[in-house]
Structure formats: C-alpha cells, structure tokens
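Design a sequence for this backbone.
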C-alpha cells in the first residue's frame, strides 16, 4: 500500500498544468510605425526581438541576404532607440551570421544572438563588440551540408550545437541554450563560458524534447522550455530536474480561424501548427512575473501565471496591425507592453495591452 501511495503522489506532482478551457480576451493596440528603418534598409523575416534596460530595441532579421536563393546567408542585427529611431547595425559581416534565429539581452545589457544556420551563439557587449562565442560553424573549405533532422538523433557533443534556437540566464549568470532542431537538449554553461552540463534528448516523455524552440527563466532560476513539437512548455530547475509541464488548450472558432499561410490544419494536428504550441515565450521582470506564449495557428498570444493558468488571450493570424504571421520571438519588458517579431509579415509590432478592458472568456 505504501508503494502505491508514493506512486500516486509522484504522478500527481508531475501531471501537466492544462490551461483552462476558456480565457478572457485582452484588448490591445498596436503602435503604428513603432520602429523606423532608414532609407534602403529593410527587414526580412523578423526572427528575434529584445529590449534592454534603456528601452533600446534589438531586432534580428533574416535580411541583408547574400548568396544563392538556396543556402543564402540571412541574418542582420539592428538596434533602435526608445522612440523607435534607427541607431545602428551590430555585427555587420559577422562570421557567425548564416540563418538568424533569436536575440536576447541579459541583465547587464549584453546582447546574445543565436544563429541556427551556423550552429553558433554569440555574446556582444553593449557597445556591440564580441565577448564570447559558443559552438562552431562548419568550415567553408569542407563540403558543407545541412544537419539531418530525421532518423536516430546523433550523439551529443559538449560545446557544439546543431541548429540552436534560443538562450536565457539565471540570477547566478549561468547561461542555458536550447539546442535545438537536431540535438533536442538544453545546454548549461557558467558565467565564464565554461561548459557545465546538458540534459534531454528527442522524445515526448517528461524531460525529452521535440524542437526546444524558445526558452526563458523566472526569478527563482526555474527554466521554461517551449517544447514546440510536443505542444507544451516544460519547466525545470537550474540543474535540469523536471518540475512540471504546461499545456495550453484554449478554444477558438475553427470556422472563422485562418492560418497565416497554407491550408487550414486538421483538427487533430500535432506539433508545430497545433493550437497552443509554443513558438515564442517570454517572462516579465519584477516581483509579479507572468509568462507570455504565442502559437502559429490560429495566431494567438497567451498571458499565463507561472504555474500555467491562462490569464488572458489576444490576437489572430493575418497581415494587418494587431494580426500576426508566425510570431517567432517576443520581448515583454513589462506586463502590458509586448514586442512581437513575425516571420511571415517581415516586421516587429509593439503592443500595448489593456487588461482593464478584458471581455468575457471565449468559449
């Protein structure tokens, strides 16, 4: 009997936190022309956005492309002031640029860029100079081929990455890298850049991943991983111990919902295009932290408590302001201010939320 009681308790503690079946709709505005590009400069696919302590906005875009149509180098890191005025390009002609994925800013205003194409993560200081590099790009003198995502996953190798996706930090300065499309694990290095450990492999059990696409940390040092292919957010402590998972399941009108591109997915779709699957997550600063997550279909942003309760929902797919085309990264400098980088619409929107105007829960 004692063994059964222990087993039942473990099952209860590890059970996923399912977001409730309804959520209030949050009213919001999108600031027109929030970021002002100079003449003859353009965003490509906007894959990353981050905000530093001075309210400067950093955008990682698959712009400034060079090379053939297939296998082109596509990454450009641009900085804007608090008023949206363009300030500079960081890392022009950087060796690590290949296929930009995300950008983040740490508590010391260092800028971190993750490049899926070169298998590298680069740390810049606030002045834009390279401080550290993680991973290694395949040599141009060799026959370079993309990593295969099918079949048995290759063996992990400390210090190297295969299509990494994102980065976050704990209060001690340790860095956590989601790695990524191929390796399906989380890597941890200390504040000096020394490799500490990694955890995870491809799969769908607790602690396993199918494209860990986005990552964030709370003030207690818990690590939230957007396990996109499995349609969930997994939460770990800083040593990789699995704590819980969050599954977002908020209903929507399937008759009126539109995909951002392509055909409407079937109702039983799994993985990347599944409703609620986390493409991008961010956690707000301050004593009362909340978690934001975005899906691709039907194109919504969810506001959640850190234990997984949905506090509100907003948005839909489309090309107009206040609509979204595959949100790939979000920055949430405060609870009611969001920046969203969109792949399909080649832009970053600045959203101002009005939770005091929430309407009744959708059903």
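Sequence:
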């Amino acid at each position: 009997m004692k063994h059964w009681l222990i087993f039942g308790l473990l099952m209860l503690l590890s059970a996923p936190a399912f977001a409730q079946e309804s959520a209030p709709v949050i009213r919001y505005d999108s600031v027109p022309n929030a970021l002002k590009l100079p003449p003859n400069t353009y965003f490509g696919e906007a894959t990353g956005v981050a905000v530093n302590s001075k309210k400067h906005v950093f955008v990682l875009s698959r712009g400034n492309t060079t090379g053939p149509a297939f296998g082109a180098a596509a990454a450009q890191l641009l900085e804007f002031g608090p008023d949206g005025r363009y300030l500079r390009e960081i890392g022009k002609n950087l060796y690590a640029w290949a296929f930009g994925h995300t950008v983040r800013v740490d508590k010391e205003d260092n800028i971190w860029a993750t490049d899926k194409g070169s298998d590298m993560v680069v740390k810049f200081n606030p002045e834009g100079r390279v401080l550290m590099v993680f991973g290694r790009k395949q040599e141009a003198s060799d026959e370079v081929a993309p990593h295969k995502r099918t079949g048995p996953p290759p063996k992990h190798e400390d210090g190297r990455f295969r299509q990494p996706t994102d980065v976050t930090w704990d209060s001690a300065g340790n860095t956590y890298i989601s790695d990524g499309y191929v390796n399906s694990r989380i890597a941890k290095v200390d504040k000096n850049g020394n490799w500490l450990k990694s955890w995870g492999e491809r799969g769908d059990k607790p602690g396993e991943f199918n494209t860990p696409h986005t990552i964030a940390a709370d003030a207690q040092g818990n690590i939230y991983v957007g396990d996109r292919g499995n349609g969930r957010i997994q939460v770990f402590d800083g040593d990789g111990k699995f704590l819980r998972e969050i599954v977002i399941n908020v209903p929507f009108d399937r008759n009126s919902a539109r995909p951002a591109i392509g055909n409407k997915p079937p109702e039983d779709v799994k993985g990347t295009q599944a409703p609620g699957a986390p493409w991008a997550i961010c956690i707000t600063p301050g004593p009362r932290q909340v978690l934001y997550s975005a899906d691709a279909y039907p194109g919504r942003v969810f506001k959640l408590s850190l234990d997984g309760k949905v506090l509100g929902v907003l948005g839909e797919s489309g090309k107009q302001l206040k609509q979204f085309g595959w949100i790939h990264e979000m920055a949430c400098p405060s609870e009611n201010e969001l920046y969203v980088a969109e792949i399909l619409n080649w832009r970053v929107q600045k959203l101002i939320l009005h939770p005091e105007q929430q309407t009744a829960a959708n059903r």
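Residues 1-13 have pLDDT under 50 and may be disordered.
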